[in-house]
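Before relying on records like the one below, remember that each one covers exactly one chain. Contacts with other chains, cofactors or solvent are not represented anywhere in the record.
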Amino acid sequence: MAMQSGRWTSQEKVLLEQLVNRYRTNWNEIAKHFPTRSARQIREHYQNHQNPQSRCSTNAVNPTNTCLYELTFLSVDRRRITPEESKQILTFYELFGPQWTLIASCVSERFTGVMIRNHWNNHQRKLRRNIRSAEHPFTTGNLSFTFLCLAPLKRTNDVLI
């Protein structure tokens, strides 16, 4: 059968909650009860949406800049990432590379790895956009300058006016 994407129905959410109570985090076993959802879809939905307290948080960072984990259940907070948190993400990315869950646990207990990865990708996209606009000053968004450049030029004795 084809995999289903899109919103989860309330019936699917209730069934998932019952199956998690029964099978814990055995996603392959749970997936047997969802013919149109993969084990990965089920796990990601449960961890990132239905049960936001399923993440571990970090309570301390040791001197070698590696995170120490202590199992604490916290809620995911979907507020914007602050500039200070963004700087921390950059620092931890330089240390760990694209280990999004590890970076999320080091930056703040309110983020998931998916949130950190999406923030990183959006930030990189904005940087590339800014570099391109700096390389092509005619496309900076200055509308009057753009129209001025596109206006037909008149020639008078081989001199542009």
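Residues 54-75, 142-151 have pLDDT under 50 and may be disordered.
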